[in-house]
């Protein structure tokens, strides 16, 4: 990457995962300094996972910087292998990975479809990047094209978003580090060293195949041991139910103490078009973070609504529901029995009981054969999907979607 003379902006971060990392360009520094990006300091990477793994307090800000660092390494590796990446393309892909999560709301994925219904965080990220592009006078044109998958070099988009993207390389290693779950440790350095491009598609040199196999296994283990850990699920469902109850009460006209920015989303449902065209809605979202939600929940512990106050107290004091995970669908009779117990014990209605007792399902697969492939490049120039090339693991088995059914309810209902 060409040299820049921005000595006052050439900052160094001491990252706990990678050590010292540097800001590679003046534009990257300006993006990091922007309030839209600084907000990510106040949004946790793993929601309420710290209620199970106490060290999991890292933020989207840290993840974005780490991913940008890895992207810089990937660009250098590909250039050294003769792949043309211009200065503008390098800056574009670095900006795209830096901003790939900028649209996350409070508590990241936990409240994604609760606080803002029907508008995905990637859509909001795109809107924010476009807003930033206007402020930076078009300097993010290439980043936007790469982010959307519209740039003529598809492999640059794959570096940002694919089944083996820089995003995943950072979050698996980072989440493993902060949770202490060693099963998630991956060889990100080796995977990046093995990167190549064939027919405008990312590929991994065959000698890195075992690192890819471990990457897929690590992702599977991290999902079931961390991201979908049953106690983490119990905590995140509780947070979701709190916001759902607050929204119901607010829309029925009850007084819900909250900042005006949060009240907008408690009382209203906004479309993607409204996000794009309503400055009040856009600004309100960008003023919300984990601190706003947690502050409100502490306040709601004393709310006159029994359900909202009970749920809020349970979260603040880590009094989590019991959760049963199983391979078979939940017995409807068992669910109905627990709902009836809750109605009797708490003297509440059917609707109110649904905030305390509920069932559903979760699913995950480590590798999706139907999506873009992870290509393995052999010395003879042949390219094969990892599912065909793997010789230690049956990747096709790991690619099957695993669905588990859950039943969640207060522990005292068993007494």
Would you write up a description of this structure?
- The protein is of the alpha+beta class.
- It has two domains: 7-225 and 377-392, Hypothetical protein af1432; 230-363 and 406-414, Growth Hormone, Chain: A, CATH 1.20.1250.30.
- It contains 21 helices and nine strands.
- It has helices at residues 26-33, 35-38, 60-80, 87-98, 112-115, 121-135, 141-148, 154-160, 166-179, 188-193, 209-227, 230-251, 260-267, 272-277, 279-286, 290-300, 306-316, 332-346, 350-353, 386-389, 395-398, and strands at 12-15, 19-22, 195-198, 201-205, 322-326, 358-364, 375-377, 383-385, 402-409.
- The strands form three sheets. Strands 3-4-7-8 form a four-stranded mixed sheet. A three-stranded antiparallel sheet has the order 5-9-6.
- The longest helix has 22 residues, at 230-251.
- 40% of the residues are buried.
Itemize the secondary structure elements and their pairings.
Layout: E1 12-15, E2 19-22, H1 26-33, H2 35-38, H3 60-80, H4 87-98, H5 112-115, H6 121-135, H7 141-148, H8 154-160, H9 166-179, H10 188-193, E3 195-198, E4 201-205, H11 209-227, H12 230-251, H13 260-267, H14 272-277, H15 279-286, H16 290-300, H17 306-316, E5 322-326, H18 332-346, H19 350-353, E6 358-364, E7 375-377, E8 383-385, H20 386-389, H21 395-398, E9 402-409
Parallel strand pairs: 4-7
Antiparallel strand pairs: 1-2, 3-4, 5-9, 6-9, 7-8
């Amino acid at each position: 990457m060409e040299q820049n003379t921005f000595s006052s902006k050439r900052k160094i971060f001491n990252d706990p995962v990678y050590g010292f990392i540097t800001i590679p360009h003046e534009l990257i520094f300006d993006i990091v300094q922007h309030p839209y990006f600084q907000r990510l300091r106040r949004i946790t990477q793993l929601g309420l996972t710290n209620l199970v793994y106490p060290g999991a307090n890292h933020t989207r800000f840290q993840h974005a910087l780490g991913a940008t660092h890895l992207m810089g390494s990937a660009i250098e590796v590909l250039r050294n292998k003769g792949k043309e990446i211009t200065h503008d393309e390098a800056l574009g892909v670095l900006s795209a990975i830096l901003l790939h999560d900028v649209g996350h709301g409070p508590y990241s994925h936990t409240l994604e479809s609760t606080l803002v219904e029907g508008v995905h965080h990637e859509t909001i990220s795109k809107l924010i990047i476009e807003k930033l592009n206007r402020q930076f006078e078009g300097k993010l044109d290439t980043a936007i094209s790469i982010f959307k998958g519209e740039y003529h070099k598809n492999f640059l988009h794959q570096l940002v978003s694919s089944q083996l993207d820089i995003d995943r390389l950072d979050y698996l290693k980072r989440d493993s580090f902060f949770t202490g779950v060693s099963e998630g440790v991956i060889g990100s350095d080796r995977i990046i060293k093995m990167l190549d491009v064939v027919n405008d598609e990312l590929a991994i040199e065959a000698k890195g195949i075992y690192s890819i196999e471990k990457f897929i296994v690590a992702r599977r283990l991290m999902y079931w041991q961390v991201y979908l850990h049953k106690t983490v699920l119990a905590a995140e469902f509780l947070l979701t139910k709190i916001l759902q109850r607050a929204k119901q009460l607010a829309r029925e006209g009850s007084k819900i103490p909250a900042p005006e920015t949060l009240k907008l989303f408690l009382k209203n449902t906004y479309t993607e078009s409204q996000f794009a065209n309503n400055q009040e809605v856009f600004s309100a979202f960008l003023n919300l973070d984990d601190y706003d939600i947690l502050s409100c929940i502490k306040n709601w512990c004393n709310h006159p609504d029994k359900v909202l106050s009970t749920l809020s107290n349970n979260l603040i004091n880590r009094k989590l529901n019991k959760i049963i995970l199983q391979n078979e669908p939940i017995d409807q009779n068992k669910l109905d029995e627990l709902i009836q117990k809750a109605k009797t014990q708490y003297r509440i209605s059917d609707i109110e009981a649904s905030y305390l007792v509920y069932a559903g399902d979760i699913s995950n697969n480590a590798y999706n054969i139907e999506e873009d492939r992870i290509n393995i490049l052999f010395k003879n120039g042949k390219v094969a999907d990892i599912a065909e090339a793997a010789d230690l693991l049956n990747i096709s088995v790991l690619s099957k979607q695993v669905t588990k059914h859950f039943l969640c309810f207060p522990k005292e209902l068993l007494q």
